[in-house]
Amino acid sequence: MPLDEVNAGRPYGRFAIPGRDEGMEMLLDKAADGSRCSVVLGYALTGGNHADGTPEVRSTFVGGVSPGRTYAAEDGLSITLDEMGAYSGVIIKRDPAPRSCG
After folding, report:
1. Checking CA distances to 93, which of 11, 48, 64, 73 falls within 20 to 30 Å?
2. Residue 91 resides in a domain
């Protein structure tokens, strides 16, 4: 799961679970001993919308997981964090028409 956003100065990402009205958010953090860990927040869409049109969500679980460990949520989902790594992303865009230089 790419943590390609920032929340409170820490890497953050949101992931929708395919085929379900649920997802999870992850925030990279450090444990008390200085090791890396991830805070995990599960959410579900309620089917309603706020006054501004954004979907209403409810939290389903909150937990933490470190590399090599599994967090089992009460709703039957489990999250295993095999490892944490770095990556570089590239966005490729095809322009609708060629441009001339001159």
Report:
1. 11
2. no
**In terms of residue numbers, what domain contains 62?**
5-81
Would 26 be classed as within a structural domain? yes
CA nearest neighbour of 60 among 73, 42, 78: 42
* pLDDT tens, residue by residue, 43-77: 888 888 889 988 898 888 888 888 888 877 776 77
Tell me, yes or no, whether 45 lies in a domain: yes
Q: Can you tell me the mean pLDDT for 1-17?
A: 86
Distance CA 32, CA 101 (A): 57
d(CA 58, CA 43): 6
Please indicate, yes or no, if residue 92 is contained in any of the structural domains: no
Residue owning tokens 């933490």: 64
Q: How far is CA 67 from CA 1, 22, 36, 56, 79, in A?
A: 13, 23, 8, 31, 11
